[in-house]
Design goal:
The complex is a heterodimer of chains A (340) and B (309). With 340 residues, chain A is mainly α. Chain A is built from eleven helices and no strands. Chain B has a single domain, classed as MetI-like (MetI-like fold), CATH 1.10.3720.10. The chains are: A mainly alpha (340), B mainly alpha (309).
Chain lengths: 340, 309
């Protein structure tokens, strides 16, 4: 098992290097120039100096290596400084390493990311947890009573939830609950600080719609998977053995079958985490949450290349990490799987 | 021995019955899946409406009439009008043509890439490792951010090269196809690995059939069932991805709208004319729902363990 994890980790490194190259290259070889939108009255030599100050005068491979160094060496130092209060980098030093700077704000990209992270994590995290909590019981019960009314309706609803894109279900909720009923605000106010009961209620109100939309979408996928995994297990011999031993039906289903059927579902849940971040790009756009997804969209629209590169690469790292987590979890949970 | 005659009888009954082909059986099983049949019926109605509708409903989708702007459904404009007074029904019909053709073309690209990679990786052991590592790498790419970036960056140059409509169509179809083939490749590779071991392939090899002919004549037809399911799901995926891109403002331009684009434009007028969001949203959701149901039905119908039950 340890050997397998080490091997997978070693394989993750070249994967990440290739992905970082792809991301860097796509953005770098693309037509378009940060000075392209400047007014024509700006003289050519000033434009040249702007390009120089952004580090654009150097060849691609040097900028790529510099970006990698900033990402993996410089930025972690600053993060450690922030977390522990240690001083690793002397700010007076003229040779102090430069952080990855956003072209839009001229501030460090990682500061932007840390500003945007809480609201994204709050909504995504809640949606993820609610989704799983809703999906697993529904999946279990539908499989146990296959072709019952509950199963037929449940399967249909999950199919709908799986097919209706979040950008439509979100807008539909806005039409119904914000425009018609005026129960919830149609956009998310990040400046709201929870200090007392009223602001707490306000915070809950503005979170209900984005969390519902995302968790319903996640739940649809998970419960379909849960149902089919339960169905695979319910007809196996060990279930018949358990029943013939005279075990309580509740024990058979909830202990024997459920535990075995959860194995693939848990790996799916691990694989879903990076996917939810992708879904957040759209959900944040619908409800105007200024989280990471919205940061990415504004950076893309403003051709803020360092921010886009860094965010996209972070998404890629998340995918690689959670793929690894899913594989390892599968190995731990299912003793039939042998990696060596 | 008492059971032997009974099983013989069953066999005879099958032999005496009508001629049964594989696709006939698949169709019989497919018909049992109510959702799939229903989905297919609605999808056919949609396709007919979208492609024949413009001949019956001859309102120009691009005609601007500010006097009737921002109307709800009326007799003259059954689906209402947008903020420039363009007729929403006509725009929905022309948008549907683009959305569906994006879905099908992107699916074809993704499918042919996936099938090629899968067959090559499964059949030629030398290619297996490099191709599967490539697939893994593509699976680790953050697809939506990359699609957004690529479209943002290359939109203008393609637009000048191929014209505003063809340029964006080619770009979107290619990037969606090129980033969604990985699951098909994995499934096809798995099937090829097992089909390769069958006696008929060994027989073909032993009489000196060339690789290309084995692949086309023996391997490909036998991996067709997962490919069909992947095709159905591929259309749904492509339609959803395209409308997500359009919804983020990075898809088709306003004068060449898809359903996703109509949704994107409608969302700013949600207080005034909520129906502008409902029509394209329902159209996207229903199409995807139907295609997913068809995919489900196909999966059941093509699974020999389920068929005939």
């Amino acid at each position: 098992m340890v050997r397998f994890i080490i091997r997978r980790l070693l394989f993750a490194i070249p994967t990440l290097i290739v992905i970082s190259m792809v991301i860097f290259a796509i953005l770098d070889f693309a037509p378009g120039d940060p000075t392209g939108n400047l007014p024509l009255t700006v003289p050519q030599d000033v434009k040249e100096r702007i390009r120089e100050s952004l580090g654009l005068d150097q060849p691609t491979h040097i900028r790529y290596v510099r970006w990698l160094r900033q990402f993996f060496v410089v930025e972690p130092q600053y993060i450690i400084e922030d977390l522990t209060g240690l001083q690793l980098i002397n700010p007076e030093d003229p040779d102090a390493p430069v952080r990855i700077l956003s072209w839009q704000t001229r501030g460090p990209v990682f500061d932007l990311i840390f500003q945007r992270m809480p609201q994204t994590l709050l909504i995504l995290g809640l949606a993820y947890v609610f989704g799983a909590l809703l999906a697993i019981p529904v999946g279990v019960y539908s499989a146990y009573r296959q072709y019952s009314a509950f199963d037929n309706i449940g399967t249909f609803i999950t199919m709908v939830g799986y097919s209706v894109p979040t950008y439509f279900s979100g807008l539909l909720m806005i039409i119904i609950f914000s425009v018609q009923l005026k129960w919830f605000p149609s956009f998310y106010d990040t400046t709201l600080e929870v200090t007392n009961w009223e602001t707490f209620v306000q915070q809950v109100k503005q979170m209900i719609m984005p969390v519902t939309v995302l968790s319903f979408f996640n739940a649809a996928q998970v419960s379909r998977f849960m149902r089919s995994s339960m169905l695979d297990n319910l007809n196996l011999d060990y279930v018949r053995t358990a029943r013939s031993k005279g075990l309580n039906e509740r024990v058979v289903v909830l202990i024997h079958v459920l535990r075995n059927s959860l194995i693939p579902v848990i790996t799916l849940l691990a694989l879903q985490i990076p996917g939810i971040f992708g879904g957040a790009i759209i959900t944040e756009q619908i409800f105007k949450v200024n989280g990471l997804g919205q940061l990415l969209i504004t950076a893309i629209q403003g051709s803020d290349i360092p921010t886009v590169q860094t965010l996209t690469f972070i998404f890629a790292i998340l995918i690689v990490i959670f793929n690894l987590v899913a594989d390892v979890l599968y190995g731990i949970l299912d003793p039939r799987i042998r990696y060596d | 021995m008492a059971t032997a005659p009974a099983s013989l009888q069953v066999d005879e009954k099958f032999e005496l019955g009508e001629h049964r082909s594989l696709w006939g059986d698949v169709w019989l099983q497919f018909r049992k899946h109510k959702g799939a049949l229903f989905g297919m019926a609605i999808l056919i109605v949609f396709i007919l409406a979208i492609y024949l509708g413009p001949f019956l409903y001859t309102v120009d989708a691009a005609y601007i009439d500010p006097i009737v702007a921002n109307q709800g459904p009326t007799l003259a404009h059954p689906f209402g009008t947008d903020n420039l007074g363009r007729d929403m029904l006509a725009r929905m019909l022309s948008g549907g043509q683009i959305s569906l053709s994006v879905g099908f073309t992107a699916m074809l690209i993704s499918l042919s890439l996936g099938v090629t990679v899968g067959i090559l990786a499964g059949y030629f052991p030398i290619l297996d490792n490099p191709l599967m590592r490539l697939t893994d790498m593509f699976l680790a790419l953050p697809i939506l951010p990359l699609l957004l970036v690529i479209i943002m960056l290359f939109r203008d140059s393609l637009r000048t090269a191929f014209g505003p409509e063809t340029g964006i169509f080619l770009l979107i179809v290619t990037v969606i196809g090129a980033t969604s083939w990985m699951n098909t490749a994995r499934v096809v590779r798995g099937e090829v690995l097992s089909v390769k071991q069958q006696e008929y392939v060994t027989a073909a090899v032993s009489i000196g059939t060339v690789n290309r002919r084995i692949l086309v004549r023996h391997i490909f037809p036998n991996v067709l069932s997962p490919v069909m399911v992947a095709a159905a799901l591929g259309v749904a995926n492509a339609i959803i991805t395209e409308s997500a891109l359009s919804f983020l403002g990075l898809g088709f331009p306003s004068d060449y709208p898809t359903w996703g684009r109509l949704l994107f434009e409608g969302k700013d007028f949600i207080n005034l004319t909520p129906t502008r969001v409902v029509w394209p949203g329902v159209a996207i959701s229903l199409t995807v729902l139907c295609v997913n149901f068809i995919g489900d039905g196909l999966r059941d119908a093509l699974d020999p363990r389920l068929r005939g039950r």
